[in-house]
Amino acid sequence: MITVSVKMFAMIRDLAGSGHVAISVADGATVDALCAALMTRYPGLEQWRPHLRFAVNNEYVTVDHQLREADEVAVIPPVSGG
Prior knowledge:
Elements: E1 2-8, H1 10-16, E2 20-25, H2 31-41, E3 53-56, E4 59-61, E5 72-76
Parallel strand pairs: 1-5
Antiparallel strand pairs: 1-2, 3-4, 3-5
């Protein structure tokens, strides 16, 4: 098992009730596996899954990106502005 630090922003933080959480996932887990763990822990996030983007250690990644111990994962919700 590895532990990653997850930061959540805006509405995702509100739905989860926290802006930061540490989550343990299996060795070799991908961002997609982490996302599944987040959806299990915070079911309210599931409706936003298709719209979320992820960054690992300050770089945008795809869901097949493999995580390593102590990675910092940012869960980025859809944004709008003008």
